[in-house]
User: What shape does this take?
Amino acid sequence: MVISMEQIQKVMLWGDSVGKGVIFDEARGRYAISKCTAVGTVAEACHLEIVNHSKMGNTISAGFEMMERDLAKGLEADVAVIEFGGNDSDFDWEAISRDPTADHQPRTPLAVFRKTLSSMVDRVRKAGMLPVLLTLPPVDADRYFSFITRTGLSAKNILQWLGDKYRIYRFHESYSLAVTQVAYEQKCRLIDLRAAFLERRDTYSFMCKDGIHPNQNGQLLMGQTVVQAIG
Assistant: This one.
């Protein structure tokens, strides 16, 4: 669905590290903010004021609490962009490494994720904002598996629990599909970031070494995708 520029002057974004523009800096071996972020690309290309409330590590529940606090302060915008799912679909890999036979649940169960996302859409509409949802950029299961086991967690035990490492990709994808479902049910605007990555032959060249964060080129790709959707 095309978003008319005439409708947009100010944008609020609530999200996680992807929305924040976090990348894994291989040279320094730690996370950092990309020099080129999707938010910066969109703001510059479309001459928008974008207030970024994204925070690294945010689950959707934490994001909803942040949204409620922000709106209670009277913050206003024309559009509210909501970007969550990566942390929600993640697991306690240390616990899985210790006991792969136990019942391990994601940080946010899928049904809770879907319900909370729908509630966030309702909340921003009540505040007079146009809700826009973003699908999740894909994960590289091979890189992420190597990343989470690099410091000594049992690769054997984690693989035993997973069944196969590509379950990481499939499970993560179920959260992206939930975003699409909520957008359909709520009749709200959706920008498909995931498709922008998957349509590229070199999909994973846009991902960091950790397998879960888009790199600087990935941030640029996301920004360009949003600019194209805005039209």
In short: DSSP finds ten helices and seven strands in the chain.
